[in-house]
Amino acid sequence: MNPSTDQSSLDLLDAYLETLSDHLRDGHSHGHGHDHSYGHGHGHGADALPFPERAVPVGPGVGGEDEELLAWVLGRFSGIRREPKDTFLLEASSLLQEFRSRRNLWNAAALRLLDDPYTFVATGPRQHEDWAHDVLALMHRSVPDPRGWLRLDRDRTNPVRHSVPAYPFDPPAASRFSDRLYRLEREAAVAALAVMAEEWQAEPAPVRSRPDRDAVLADARMLLDRYGPAARYWTNATAAASDPAPDFLTPGLSAQRSHGFLTGEYVNGIDLLDDLGLIAVSENEVGVFWSIGAY
Q: How far apart are CA 77 and CA 52, in angstroms?
């Protein structure tokens, strides 16, 4: 983590907690027996991760709700016991999620709606007239979120990306996007995003029958509100081939058929067989929302 001078204290703290969680998770999954030391820069050895001092709110430019949030998360972090390591990992990861939820309403809606199932959520800058190039940049993780908001990407540090850089995706060339995508009206886009809260197999509570159905749809609308009233939407779902307003809620996620954007690589005993994607395009931003069926 190399902080730039234009990052806010909140951004620095977010990046630190994410890097720390990755660091802990990697060490835990590899079964290292080394002494890991984490804290305010006082650890020794290669595994120590120094705390970013500029994340501590001092001087002008910090105040109000930001200062309260910083004080809260720093207080919580200082109270987490460093041993045992698996407990430290769990509590640090949980703190990161709660911190992100408190940062803004968009983050909170994304976490409520899409954090549990296998999804990919990312927004990047609109840099091309042909926005397919911007989608490819997001799938390859080569551009940041222009607002510094939440991304959901459980494969961000997956070692398989050394051989399959866009994993879990194997997207077509930008020139072939039109062969695999269909326009969606906004309310259909909301419904497509909402059913991504479901599982591909054995979903016990489809969105259509959940008691909080309206709240799920409200979260989906909030996520798409980011892109403004002039945004346009595309999906790879074949249900939209002849109708820009198909019903996603009634059949649910498991009934969706699509033009695949996923890799066919069989990695670590996992096949990626189903996907439902939604792309939001505005004048300044491109958002990618993808549900992935892994078996």
A: 13
pTM of the model: 0.85
Which residues make Cβ contacts (< 8 Å) with residue 206, sequence separation at least 6?
195, 198, 252, 253
Of 177, 138, 183, residue with least CA distance to 286: 138
Tokens 């994410």 -> residue:
18
**pLDDT digits over 171-193, tens only?**
999 999 999 999 999 999 999 99
For the chain, what is the radius of gyration of the CA atoms?
A: 20
Question: How would you write 190-216 as a 3-class SS string?
Answer: HHHHHHCCCCCCCCCCCHHHCCCHHHH
Mean pLDDT, rounded, for 139-161 = 94
Q: For residues 292 and 155, give the distance between their C-alpha atoms in angstroms, rounded to a whole number.
A: 12
Q: Which residues contact 24 (CB under 8 A, 6 or more apart)?
A: 36, 38, 85, 88, 89, 92
Please report, to the nearest 10 degrees, the dihedral formed by the alpha carbons of residues 266, 179, 137, 170 taken in order. 10
Q: Are 260 and 92 in contact (CB under 8 A)?
A: no
Helix (H, G, I), strand (E, B) or coil at 134: helix
Dist CA 218 CA 206 (whole Å): 16
Place of tokens 């999804």: 119
Cβ of 198: how many Cβ atoms within 10 Å? Answer: 22
Q: How far apart, in whole angstroms, are the C-alpha atoms of residue 270 and residue 282? A: 34
Three-state SS at 23? helix
The span from the CA of 184 to the CA of 193, in Å, is: 12
